[in-house]
Specification:
160 residues; mainly beta; eleven-stranded antiparallel β-sheet; 11 strands; globular
Length: 160
């Protein structure tokens, strides 16, 4: 019962205070700064990095468990111009961490068409986008048509 209560309270907190700013009543959003790495799927070779990447997570309707993920002013290759790339309507499931201290929003969606400036780009369809909006935020997506895997995280790098 305690987990259900924590989960219910967490959903309300996520929708009202953890994701602050943004739009009108019934919406919520938050910006996350972190590290972006682009790798070739086949070779695993890193082709691009950005240690000041910003991702926005926006819930357009707090009653529906779907959010939009926007990679702000991002480029995935050295020669690519910086763009705002949006993945809209990603369904998520809210869970509570084992220690009951963190609410996590888990998602894993296949065949997603990104938009840029509201225009869908079918030829850049993402095979899979998955992640966890929690502590830390982690988002990964694969685009086999371009042999790219993109990884974003707010986790601090450990120095060995």
């Amino acid at each position: 019962m305690k987990k259900i209560f924590v989960l219910a309270c967490g959903v309300v907190l996520f929708a009202t205070s953890c994701l602050t700013g943004g739009g009108s009543a019934g919406t919520s959003s938050a910006n996350y700064s972190g590290y972006l790495t682009v790798s070739e799927i086949e070779s695993g070779k890193t082709t691009y990095t950005d240690d000041k990447a910003v991702v926005t997570v926006r819930i357009p309707n707090i009653i529906e468990p779907k959010f939009d993920v926007i990679f702000n002013n991002i480029k995935f290759a050295t020669m690519m111009p910086k763009l705002n790339i949006e993945f809209e309507g990603l369904p998520f499931v809210a869970t509570v961490s084992e220690d009951e201290s963190t609410l996590n929003h888990i998602f894993n969606v296949k065949d997603v068409v990104p938009t840029i400036g509201g225009v869908p780009y079918d030829k850049y369809k993402v095979d899979s986008i998955k992640g966890c909006i929690g502590r830390p935020v982690t988002i990964e997506f694969w685009m086999s048509s371009k042999d790219n895997m993109v990884h974003f995280t707010t986790a601090k790098e450990e120095n060995n």
